[in-house]
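thread: overnight batch results

M.L. [08:02]
morning all. the overnight job finished for the chain we discussed friday. pasting input first so we're all looking at the same thing
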Amino acid sequence: MQREAATIREEWLGHALSTRPADRPAAEAAITRLYRLVGLAPPRFHWVSSPLVALETMPAGVRAGASERVDRVGEWPVVRALVAERTRLCLELETRVGATRHGFGNIVQHLVGIALTRSERAVFQVPLRLAHGADYRHASPWYDALSPSWIARYDALRRAAGVPFAQDEVRRLGLWADAARACGWWWPRQDVCVVAERPVELRTEAADDDVGVRLHCPDGPAVRYADGWDVHAWHGTRVPAWVITGPDDVSRIERETNVEVRRCAIERIGWATYIDRAGLRLVSTARDPGNPGSELRLYDLRGQTRVLLAVNGSVERDGRRRRYGLTVPGYFDDPVAAAGWTYGLTGEEYSRLARRT
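M.L. [08:03]
and the structure it wrote out:
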């Protein structure tokens, strides 16, 4: 059962990460049936090239009233009706799952639901958060409804665990599944539904848990749409384009106020290169007691801050050990004490570690 559930998870992850053009007839058919499911007439469809365009343009002949502002997507009447239908369906399906009493629900939730949710947040929903900005939280219930993790979970419970859903429940779940397979994001208004094409490029890497994925591309956009709108990411962290395309300007790195962006830019060129170009003063070195065979190096960084250069205790997927920097308070002169501080330990306690990771 677990192997089949994992296969279903990968199947749905493939749909979420697809860069194929949307199947427009299938998408429009599924969305039309969802409209009818909540008692609404079929909408007119307006296709756009990206989520950004979907949120910044208004379809011809449509005048959005106060109830359909793009900064309040979650409050749109059709969105609320569809979210309510999805909630009813989930409650019914959960009743079926609970009635089986065979314990597969938690297994499938971990293998499929939670794993896909992590990938959705790290990949699938990133362009939406960027397009919406601070308004994303008002739309998140709708985007959760469109994300395939919940569909995949019930699909796995039915196909892999054998949970018996009613015919009508399977039919209604199938409508959401058909739409998720056929296209990306869509925004349902009263008379028109805006649907965005999928990205034409999507670059990811395995996440730390080896189950999910996250955005990463070392030499270009991690997400790119046909209209040129793109998103850059470094090992799961969204960054400005310059971090990927031109990180060699050390002065620009030093001016960056976002510590995560600054860290990514330094990692992009390598800590050794950054230290050399920035002319950081070496304070002291010491053998790393938590990572035998490696050295700790402590440098002055800026103001009352120093940076501890260390080597990862775990081997990366490419077989190498990553060198990384950690900012520590400027009062540290001993690299071992600084390393202990990053773990919430004293230098003496850190020295007794068998091996850190």
